[in-house]
Structures are given as structure tokens and as C-alpha cells.
Specification:
Layout: H1 5-11, H2 21-45, H3 47-54, H4 58-86, H5 88-105, H6 112-126, H7 129-140, H8 143-198, H9 210-216, H10 229-233, H11 236-267, H12 275-301, H13 306-321, H14 333-354, H15 357-361, H16 364-395, H17 400-420
Helix pairs in contact: 1-9, 2-3, 2-5, 2-7, 2-8, 2-11, 4-5, 4-6, 4-16, 5-6, 5-7, 5-8, 7-8, 7-16, 8-12, 8-14, 11-14, 11-16, 11-17, 12-13, 12-14, 13-14, 13-17
Length: 432
């Protein structure tokens, strides 16, 4: 006989009869994130092609990236609040429609203004991916599994980054870069149909067993009241997450939008040859995302506090990024790929844990809003870093100053997070 709700909740651990419906939800989030990153990364992959066709300078390209990040910053905080109000199912659907339409419209523009406009629209839509996805994880997983679940669906970012250099060069050669945007956007609409058909909140799902629902709800109940967005701004726990995003998100943006350019300029690769190095880098990143989420979850299962497990994992990640200092000086392509792979894997492992902090410290009804605030901070940091990258490449022509910043910000971010939230205590938003 299946366990009762109460018995399953008391054990706080899954068994063979609990069920695995929640992992289907993770699979959907994984697929959406992969699509999100295909759409996001394509302009970075096509940067040399577009620069040759339109005569863009380094600062012109940086400006186009800047407008994407500006819109992403605005959209992130908006979608964080929207998702808390309307739920993950509707919020994700709206975001997906907006970003897919924007992605396909890339095939219709030719001017710098046109690219800036469609990138801005893409930024608005794509900003809904993580607030909605993390809201879904918060609804479908107890705290002990959230970092692992987040790591799994966040791994979709790397799969998207792997798929892009495998399919986009072939599509570009066969149909032109405009056709590549339209085709990839049209195919991705399959996901939207699946999401609308499958996703429900746990208590609304007919696929979920009583035991699995009890396991999902095994954490103490959250306060029933909604938390006003403005109240969250005053909490130091919010700023711990937001500053962590502000300092470290820009490094990931840099890899997405400039890594193909680095391989072209430093190692002489092109559209036909930088695919294999990029695939290796993002396969290793995928492993980092999953292992980073698994590791802190494993420590918690072994009796570590959430605070110790998350911060120990994040410290290891921060230390693993620091060798990026040397990437500019390495002549051997595959040694450089190994250094970059370690850094990108460490970032993804870091991100899996950083993204889990809001659900560790805030009630479910506030998670989307806190993630929105942090995502906006990360996008603002990315905007600043993009302008910095454009200026450095225009004036210096080397990535060394860029990699120095990338190598130190994780340790700085972890120090600030610990200072603002020494124990990752639950934020007292009721009396804030």
C-alpha cells in the first residue's frame, strides 16, 4: 500500500513508490533552456560573418549586445513579478512566444538599429526563462533536491550552446544566416505545445501520486500571504543574491557572445572549424552544471547544513575559474580549450547553487520576484561588462584584461554573499 501524505512527508526521503513526475517537469525546463541558449548564442557564433557583411566594429557589436542585456534587465524584473502572479505555466508560455518571434525576426533585419531592436525584443522574452523555470522547480521540488534539479535544467544552457555550433554553420551554409534564424525558431515551437499540454502545479496534476505530492510538500509550509515586491528590496538576503548575479553573470555573457570571436582571433579558427572546440567547452560545462547541483544536494543529504553545503560548493567553483587568467597566453588550442572548459563548468556549477539561494531564504510566493531582481542585477552587470569588452578589444586587442576580471569576481561575490547572509537564514519578509 502506498504511504499516506503524512507518512511520506515525515520520512522526507523518496523511495521507489514516490514517483518521478517531477523529473518530467525538469526535462521540459531543460529543453526550454536549451532552446533559449540556441537563440541567444547564434549572434555570437555568426559575429564574424555579420561583421564581414555589415562592417561592424568591436564597439558596434558590443552596443548590440548591450541593448539585448538592457532589455533583459528590464524584462527579468518584470517577469519575476509576473510569474509570481500568474504562475509558471502562463508566464513561461508568454516569454517563449515573445523570444521565439524575436529570434525569427532576426532574419528580416539589416541595419544596426534593426539588430538592436530585435535583440532587445529577444532580451525581453528570454528574461522570462529563469524566473519561470525556477518558480517551477520551487513548486515541484523540496529544498533538498532543488539545487540538483536546478543544475539539471540549467544544463540545458550548455546543450543549447553545444547544438548551436553543430547546426548553425550547416544551416548558414545551406540557407544563409537569415534562413538559419527562421528555421531554428520555427522548429522550437514544438516545445510550446508540450509545455501547455503537460505543465500544471503539483496539486493540479493528474499524473502525480499521493506519495510524490507529499514528498514535494515535505518542507514546512510557507506563509500564505503574498510578499510585496518593494518589501523584498530592503532585505539583505535579496542583495546577497543580486550582487552575486551582478558580479558573475557578466562572465557567462562574455563566454556566450565573445568566445567564438576569441577562437577566431587567437587561434585562427572560422565558422567551419570552431564547432568542435565549442562543443567540448559546453559539454564540460554541462557536466559542471549537473555536478555542482548534485554536490551540494549530496552534502545536505549527508547532514550538512544548507549554508555549509551551498557555500563550500560555491568556493570550489570560484577557485576553479581563476586559471582563466592564463587562457590568453596559451598557444596550443586544446590547452586553451581545457582552461576555458574548467572556467565555464565552474560557472555553471556556481550558477546552479546561486540560483537556489532565493528558494533557500524566501517563501515560494516571493521566489520569482527575488530571482527577477537578481536577474536584472546580473543583466546590468553584463551591460557594463559588454561595454568594457568592446573598449578593451577596440583599444588593446587582447582578452587578457577581460580574463583577469573574470577570474577574480567569483571569490569577491562569495565574500559579499557570506557577509550579507552568514547562515542563509530564512528572510523575515513578513516584518520587513
Amino acid at each position: 500500500m502506498a504511504k499516506s501524505f503524512e507518512e511520506a512527508a515525515e520520512t522526507g526521503a523518496p523511495n521507489a513508490r514516490v514517483g518521478r513526475v517531477r523529473w518530467v517537469i525538469v526535462a521540459l525546463l531543460f529543453a526550454a533552456t536549451a532552446i533559449n541558449y540556441v537563440d541567444r548564442q547564434m549572434i555570437g557564433l555568426l559575429k564574424p560573418t555579420l561583421q564581414d557583411e555589415f562592417g561592424w566594429t568591436e564597439t558596434t557589436y558590443a552596443d548590440i549586445v548591450f541593448y539585448f542585456q538592457l532589455a533583459y534587465a528590464i524584462g527579468y524584473i518584470v517577469f519575476g513579478n509576473v510569474v509570481d502572479r500568474v504562475g509558471a505555466r502562463l508566464g513561461y508560455s508568454v516569454a517563449f512566444i515573445v523570444w521565439t518571434a524575436a529570434h525569427m525576426l532576426h532574419g528580416a533585419v539589416s541595419s544596426v538599429f534593426g539588430f538592436a531592436a530585435v535583440r532587445a525584443m529577444l532580451g525581453i522574452g528570454e528574461s522570462g526563462n529563469f524566473p519561470a523555470g525556477l518558480k517551477a522547480v520551487t513548486e515541484w521540488f523540496p529544498k533538498k533536491e532543488r539545487a540538483f534539479a536546478t543544475g539539471l535544467f540549467n544544463a540545458g544552457a550548455n546543450v543549447g550552446a553545444i547544438i548551436t555550433p553543430l547546426i548553425v554553420p550547416a544551416l548558414t551554409i545551406a540557407y544563409g544566416w537569415r534562413g538559419a534564424f527562421v528555421i531554428t525558431g520555427a522548429v522550437s515551437l514544438i516545445w510550446l505545445v508540450a509545455w501547455i499540454a503537460i505543465y500544471r502545479r503539483p496539486r493540479e496534476s493528474k499524473r502525480l501520486s499521493a506519495a510524490e505530492l507529499a514528498y514535494i510538500e515535505s518542507d514546512p509550509a510557507d506563509p500564505a500571504h503574498k510578499v510585496p515586491w518593494i518589501r523584498l528590496i530592503g532585505r539583505k538576503e535579496t542583495w546577497a543574491f543580486a550582487i552575486g548575479k551582478f558580479l558573475t553573470d557578466p562572465v557567462w555573457w562574455m563566454f556566450l557572445f565573445w568566445l567564438p570571436d576569441f577562437l577566431v582571433k587567437r587561434h585562427g579558427l572560422d565558422l567551419k572549424t570552431f564547432g568542435p572546440p565549442l562543443v567540448v567547452i559546453y559539454v564540460v560545462s554541462d557536466v559542471g552544471s549537473i555536478v555542482g547541483g548534485w554536490f551540494s544536494s549530496r552534502l545536505i543529504h549527508r547532514g550538512w547544513t544548507i549554508n555549509a553545503a551551498r557555500k563550500t560548493t560555491m568556493l570550489i567553483c570560484a577557485l576553479c575559474v581563476t586559471p582563466i587568467f592564463f587562457a590568453q597566453y596559451v598557444d596550443n588550442l586544446w590547452v586553451a580549450v581545457a582552461i576555458i572548459s574548467l572556467a565555464t563548468a565552474a560557472h555553471q556549477a556556481w550558477s546552479a547553487n546561486l540560483y537556489t539561494l532565493p528558494s533557500d531564504m524566501f517563501p515560494r510566493k516571493a521566489v520569482g520576484s527575488v530571482i527577477g531582481i537578481g536577474g536584472t542585477a546580473g543583466a546590468v552587470g553584463g551591460m557594463i561588462f559588454s561595454l568594457y569588452i568592446g573598449q578593451v578589444l577596440e583599444r588593446v586587442g587582447s582578452y587578457q584584461l577581460i580574463f583577469i576580471v573574470a577570474g577574480v569576481v567569483y571569490l569577491l561575490a562569495l565574500g559579499i554573499i557570506h557577509l550579507l547572509s552568514p547562515r542563509l537564514d530564512h528572510a523575515d519578509v513578513a516584518d520587513a
